Amino acid sequence: MADLEIDGPADFYYQAFPGDRLWVKSLVYTICALELAMTMTIIHSGFAQFGYGFANPSSISKVPIAWVMVPIVGALVGFAAQSFYAYRIHVLSGAILIPGIIIAISLTSSGSALTYSAFNSQMDTILVLQPSDRTFVALVVWCGASALCDILIAICMTYCLTKSGATGLRQTRAMVSRLTRLIIETGILTALVATTTLALFIAFP
Q1: Which parts pass through the membrane (predicted)?
Q2: Closest CA to 65 of 82, 86, 40
């Protein structure tokens, strides 16, 4: 009986793009490691509150570490990915202004996420965790800027790829078409997640 192998995102990336530069591979694997660490943090916080702390009000009312760690990891991953796409847009188009705007928006989003995490770290219990004005502003800027950045990246990458593939061979045009569709889908998805997070925070503060 053959051994069962389960491929993760890093395995899929290595199989699909084995010729990428070392710094690109390092970036991808670092993001995968950060995402894994964030997932483990969320699982640990869930078990601590609803597993080990079952029927213990003091355990359930504590602010979980995930509320502090998730914005930090999200800020790091978001800035790394969005800066990478800004670099790609610069390479494809030769422009400097648009990539600069993308990085500036990404920095604003990441800074707001770190600020939101700092506000959460100051809370002792969930019972007193109310959305103050500063917390509300930090999360609105975080999610709003993130959504704006993702939409801008999707538009710019779609334009650059469409323009570069318009005069290529048929096989090249087909590949560019698939890449364009993938970028549009992922851009819409990430923007939708940021918008949904903001909407849920406003609806259920």
Answers
A1: 27-52, 64-87, 94-116, 136-161, 182-204
A2: 40
Task: List all residues 6 or more positions away from 88 whose beta carbon is below 8 Å from its beta carbon.
Answer: 157
SS3 140: helix
Query: Binning pLDDT at 50, 70 and 90, where does residue 6 land?
Result: very low
In the chain, domain spans: 65-203
Buried b (16+ CB within 10 A) or exposed e, 131-166: eeeebeebbebbbbbbbbbbbbbbebbbebbeeebe
Rounded to whole angstroms, how far apart are CA atoms 12 and 156? 26
Q: What is the 3-state secondary structure (H, E, C) of 159-191?
A: HHHHHHHCCCCHHHHHHHHHHHHHHHHHHHHHH
Mapping DSSP to helix (H, G, I), strand (E, B) and coil, where does residue 15 land? helix
